[in-house]
Amino acid sequence: MSAGPSKTGGIAHRMLSALQSxxxxxxxxxxxILLWQYAATRAGSIFFPPPSEILHxxxxxxxxxxxxxxxxxxxxxxxxxxxxxRLLFGWALAVAIGVxxxxxxxxxxxxxxxxNPSLQFLRAIPGPALIPVFIILLGTETTMRxxxxxxxxxxxxxxxxxxxxxxxxxxxxxxxxxxxxxAHARLWRIVLPAAMPKIFAGVRVSLAxxxxxxxxxxxxxxxxxxxxxxxxxxxxxxxxxxxCGIVLLALLGxxxxxxxxxxxxxxxxxxxxxxxxxxxx
Length: 281
Hints:
This protein has 11 helices and no strands. The model has no long low-confidence stretch (mean pLDDT about 90). It starts with a helix and ends with a helix. It is globular and about 70 Å long. It has 2 domains: about 5-45; about 65-280, MetI-like (MetI-like fold). It is mainly alpha-helical and about 280 residues long. The chain has helices at about 5-45, 50-60, 75-105, 110-125, 130-140, 140-165, 170-180, 185-215, 225-235, 240-265, 270-280.
C-alpha cells in the first residue's frame, strides 16, 4: 500500500530536481530577456526593440513559408542556408588541413624549426585584413568566403595539434618502438589518442572564429548571407531586422557549439573516464 505514495514522491522529487536544474542553467538568460523586454518597452527606442517584437519579425522573415517547405521563409533559403554552408565548408577545410599538418609538424623537430617562424607570422595577421587580397585572388563569390573562413580558423586547430602531438608520453613511444610497433600504428594508437583533447579544444575555438569570419566575409561585396542582411538592414534603417540577424547568429553559434560538445563527449568519453578514475585514486 505504501509503494504508491513512495513512487509518486520519487517522481515529484525528480521533477523538482529537473526544474531546479533548468532554473540554474537558464534562469539568468530568462531574467535578462525579461529585463530587456521591460526596459525596451518603457524606453520606446527604435534602436533597441523589445524581444517580443524581434521574435514576431523573425517569424515573418524565416517561418512564414508554405507547408511544403516546412514553413521556412525565403530568407532561410536566400541567406541562412548559404551562410551555414560557407561556415561549415570553411571550418571543415580548416580541420582537414590543420590536423594532418599539425601532426606532421609536431612529430618532426626539423619541420617544426622550419615552419614555426612562418606560422607565428601568419597567425598574427587578422583574417579580415586579408579580404582585399582574397578578393583579388579568388573574386567575390563563395570560394573567397570559404577560403577566408578556413584561413582565419585554422590556427587554433594547427597550433593545438602541434602542441598535443609534442606532449605524448615518451615512455609510451619508447615502449611501442621496443615492441616494434610500426610507425602508422604508433600514430593511430598512441600519438592521436594522446593529442585528441588538445585537438578538440582547438577545433572548438576555431568553430567560434568561423562564425565570426562568416559574418565578416559577407559584409564585403556580397549579395546574400546573414552578415549581408544585417548590414543592409542597418543601412536602410530596418533595425528590428538587424536585431533579428544578430539574434539568429547567437542562436546559430550556440547550436553549433552544443552539437560539437555532444560529439566531443562521445569522442573523448574514454579520456574523461580515465581522468575521473585517476582523480578518485
